[in-house]
Amino acid sequence: MDTKTIYDFMVVANELEFEELSEKLENHLIESKASWLKTHFTFVYHSIFKNNKFQNLKKFCNDIIVKNPSIIFESAEFTSLHESALISILKRDDLQMKESEIWDYLIKWGTARNPTLPKKLEEWSDENFMTLKTTLQQCLPFIRYFHISNLDVMFKIKPYKKILDKQIWNDLKQHFILPDHPVESIILPPRLVLKQELPERVNEAFSVIINEEHASMISSWIDNQQTSYSLTNNPYEFQLILRGSKDGFAPRTFWDICDGHANTIVVTKVEGTDEIIGGFNPLAWDKTKTEWMKTNKSFIFSFKDGNLQNPILSRVKKENEALWYALDKDKYGPRFGFDAFVMKSDESNFTQDKKNWCDNFREIYEKSIRTTKDRFSIIDYEVFKVVKKSI
Questions:
Q1: CA 125 vs CA 110, 132, 388: distances in Å
Q2: How many angstroms separate the CA atoms of 304 and 65, rounded?
Q3: Tell me, what's the pLDDT at 198?
Q4: In which residue ranges of the chain is pLDDT below 70?
C-alpha cells in the first residue's frame, strides 16, 4: 500500500469516527513516512486543518514550519491557509521570523480574504478597516507588538492602527517614549531564536506553482516528444531564476533579473482559480531590445485547475512574431506573440490590476490556451532556466 493510500485511509477513518484507527495511521505516517509528508508538505498541511483532529500531524508540521517559515509563508497557497492553521503558527514562541515580517504576512492573508478592499490604502474607509479587523480578530492577539522596532511600528503598524484595539495602540505610543514604563496591555514574550543548530533541511519543492510531473511534461514539449517524460527520465533540470513572491512583481524586475537568460520557462498561477499558464522562450531575454523576436521553438501552455489532465499546448505559427520585447518595460513583462500570453501591469505589480491576458486574436500561436479572454491578476509567478542534467 503506497503512502498516499495510507493517508487517504486515515482521513476516511477520521470521517467515520474510527478514532483509534485514525490515530494509529497518523502516528505511522509520522514515524515511518516522514519523508513523504515533507515532500507533500503543502498538500498535507492544508488538508489536516479542515477539522479539529490530527493533532499529532499538526504538531509535526508546525515543528517544521517554525524552523522553515518560507515553506508556508512564501507558498502560492498561503492566502488560502485555514485560519486555525495560521493561528497555530502565530502562537508558537519559536517561530523563526522577524515580528514585523509576520505582521506583513498577516495583513497579506487578511486582505486576500477580502478582495473587494481598495488596492491603495489611502482609499480605505473606516468600514474597510473594520472589515479587515473582523477578518483578523482571532489572529491579532498573537502578534508580539512590543518586540517590533519603532521604525517598523511607524511604517508598518501605524497605517493599520484602526484594526488594533485602542489600548494596544496607545500603549505602543507610550512604549516609544517610555520603554521601561508599565503598560496596561499584555506584553507577550519575544520569540525564541534558535542558535544551537541549523534548521532542519526540508525537501522543499523546486517550485510553488508546478511539480515534477508538470516539469516532465513541459520538458517533453521542449523536445517535441509524443509522450511525456517520466519523473526518472526527464533530461532537464529547472533552475529557478525569479519568483514573484520573493523577488517582486514589478515588470521591470522581470527584465532586470532575467536579462541574458535563454531557454526559460515562465509559469504563473491565476488569481481566483488554480489555473497555471506559462510559456517557453528558447531565446535570451534582453532588456535593451525593443522588437519582435524570431523563433520557431517557442510555445505557450495552460493546465486547467493546475492538474495534468487535458493540458493545452500551443506552438508558435508565425515565427517572426514569436515574442515581443516591449518598449515600456515598466508595464510589460514577457509577451508571447501579440496577445497569446501577455504579462502586463499599469500598477507595476502583476498581482494587482488584472491586466494580464491570453487572447491569440492574431493567431500567432496555434490556439488559445484559455477558454476566456478575460484579463486577470496572478497569485505568483516563476521563471526557470531549463538546463540539461549532467550525466
A1: 16, 11, 53
A2: 29
A3: 47
A4: 1-2, 39, 51-52, 194-204, 391
**How many angstroms separate the CA atoms of 157 and 126, rounded?**
16
Residue 17's Cβ-count burial label (10 Å; 0-12, 13-18, 19+) is exposed
pLDDT of the residue at 51: 65
Cell numbers representing residue 13 in the block: 477513518
Instruction: Dig out the grid coordinates for 330 from the structure.
Output: 515598466
C-alpha cell at 391: 550525466
Supply angle C-alpha 242, 243, 248, rounded to 5.
Answer: 100
Torsion sign (Cα): 329, 330, 331, 335: positive
Are 368 and 357 spatial neighbours (Cβ–Cβ below 8 Å)?
no
Residue 154 identity: M
Compute the distance between CA of residue 274 and CA of residue 214 in angstroms, rounded to an integer.
14
Which helix (DSSP H) or strand (DSSP E) does residue 95 occupy? none
The helix/strand/coil state of 43 is: helix
pTM of the model: 0.52
- DSSP-based helix, strand, coil % in the chain, nearest 5: 40, 15, 45
Which residue type does 95 have?
L
Which positions ≥6 away from 381 have C-beta within 8 Å?
209, 242, 243, 244, 249, 266, 267, 268, 269, 343, 350
193: left (phi over 0), alpha (psi -120 to 50) or beta: beta
C-alpha 312, offset from chain centre: 23
Residue closest to 82 by CA, chosen among 60, 62, 56: 62
